[in-house]
Each structure stands twice: as structure tokens, then as C-alpha cells.
Amino acid sequence: MNLLIIRLIIFAVVFYVGLKLYGIYRQRKLEHDEKNQKIHRHEGGKMVRCRWCEVHVPEDEALRDREQWFCSSAHRDRFLQEQQDKDGTP
To answer: What pTM value is reported for the model?
Structure first.
């Protein structure tokens, strides 16, 4: 009976130490991942609004045509086509 209690106590201590080590490992991994994410995250930069859909996109990813910004070439083409239709020019 005495030996059973000693084994149970040893098992509990080993289990507790294992949980603590796992917690330390997870915390360090999370800190490392956050550090890497901050490095790779795009910060700053100017945002511009697409003339067609009015969605904001980073300036370095947007397309510019005649002092107007577009999020894609499809939206640029639609906008220009609409302008041509309004003006009546073929």
C-alpha cells in the first residue's frame, strides 16, 4: 500500500512538471510566431480608394489611370468603358 502511494505521488509530480514544460514551450512558440508576424506584416503605406467599387487598397498594389485609382484592371476597364459610353465616344 505504501509503495502504491509513492508511485502515485511520483506520477503526479512527473505529470505536473510535464505540463509546466509544455506551457513554457507553447508560450515561447507563440512569442516567436508573433515576432515573425510583426516582421512580415505590411505596415504603413497609403491607402487609396478604387474609383469603381470604392474599396480601399494599398497604394503599391493599386492601379492608377488618369489620376484615379483602381483595385484591378477589370475595374479600371469597366470604369473607362462607362466613361466612354457617357461621353458618346466609340
So the answer is: 0.48
